[in-house]
Amino acid sequence: MKIIRKTNELEQILVLIKDKGQSIGSVLTMGNLHDGHLSLIKEAQINNDFVVTSIFINPTQFNNETDFSSYPKTIDDDIAKLEKIGCDLLFLPEIQEIYPGDLLKQNIVNNFRGILCDKYRPGHFDGVTTVVDIFFSIIKPNASYFGEKDFQQIKIIQELVKIKNHNIKIVSCPSIRDDSGMSLSSRNSKFTNDQSKIFNQLGSKIYEFINFCKKKSSNINLDNFKKQILENSINKIDYIEIRNENNLDITNVSSKARLFIALYIGEIRIIDNFKLY
Ligand code: AMP
Q1: Residues above pLDDT 70, as percent of the chain
Q2: Rounded distance, CA 21 to CA 12, Å?
Q3: What is the pLDDT of residue 264?
Q4: Left (φ > 0), alpha (ψ -120 to 50) or beta: where does 133 sit?
Q5: Whose CA is nearest to atom 7 of ligand 1?
Q6: Which end of the chain is more exposed for a tag (fewer CB within 10 A), N or C?
Q7: Ligand 1 center from residue 150 Cα (angstroms)
Q8: 120-144, pLDDT tens digit by residue?
Q9: What's the pTM value of the predicted model, to 2 decimals?
Q10: Is the pLDDT of residue 100 over 90?
Q11: Pick from 7, 4, 2, 50: which is nearest to 25 by CA?
């Protein structure tokens, strides 16, 4: 696997790939790779001739310095995992390479904003769309692969591609989950044993509720479920909501809907979503 740190070097390599008529798939990550990330890379490999994975902890999408500086970093393990699955190229830029000047973020997308994570992490999605736009402009992939775990992010990136006229197919890939049914997440590598137990119990409670929603199908009320979650050593709930998966409007019917959650176990923020149909 090639490991490239400089933008101009990457661009030169990718021009040669494109000149050969080969397709490029990209997977953008912040590292601490797990099976969720690897599933995106495998999907990209099935559908493209050449796959670029990036690892870049993007400073402009964090809401505070501690969260940014404490983000898990496991670059040697990540490289080993990428080598093992046969990724073609790892783009591993320094911050200076992506933000040559100040750490500025642009407000590019306004649809699907003001709700869910945007309400609780103001500016986060401006950071995300800014960095994804930069990466898309450098890599110019034919297709880019994103996880449904970050469902609102996919919606916003689909808007970004339209607004910025990127000729890139956005492919959404299902969440890879652990035995408790919760999505794998880099942040979970920071759990203590007790927190892991709470996380697993949370999974059981959520799946009980999903089964209830599937049976009830309309007029679903979240109050009782929220109460149960708070009893389960959850520090803080940002949101627990049911929304239609096409327009992200609030709904109380299960058809075409997902349960969206964002909450804290200790200081660790968990986000996930679950199909209710
Ligand atoms: P991150 O490194 O957290 O920025 O994630 C990079 C990409 O991997 C994003 O498109 C995420 O949605 C995706 N991803 C993260 N966790 C999972 C998971 N458990 N299953 C599938 N995709 C995931």
Answers
A1: 100
A2: 15
A3: 96
A4: alpha
A5: 29
A6: C
A7: 7
A8: 999 999 999 999 999 999 999 999 9
A9: 0.97
A10: yes
A11: 50
Which of ligand 1's atoms lies nearest the C-alpha of 31?
2
Candidate of 29, 128, 171 to mutate for ligand 1, largest count of ligand atoms within 8 Å of Cβ: 29
**CA dist., res. 254 & res. 270, Å (int):** 22
Instruction: Report in angstroms the alpha-carbon separations of 10 from 41, 130, 144, 258.
Output: 18, 19, 16, 38
Structure tokens at 32: 């601490």
Confidence grade of residue 29 (pLDDT, cut at 50, 70, 90): very high
Q: Which atom of ligand 1 is nearest to the CA of 150?
A: 12
- Among the atoms of ligand 1, which is closest to the Cα of residue 33? 2
Residue ranges in the chain assigned as alpha helix (H): 7-19, 35-47, 65-69, 75-85, 95-98, 116-120, 124-139, 151-163, 193-216, 223-231
Cβ(256)–Cβ(218) below 8 Å? no
- Atom 17 (ligand 1): residue with closest C-alpha? 36
How far apart are the C-alpha atoms of 120 and 100, rounded to whole Å? 29
Please state whether 113 falls in left (phi above 0), alpha (psi between -120 and 50) or beta.
Answer: beta
Domains identified in the chain and CATH numbers: 2-173 (3.40.50.620), 186-275 (3.30.1300.10)
Q: Does the annotation mark 37 as catalytic?
A: yes
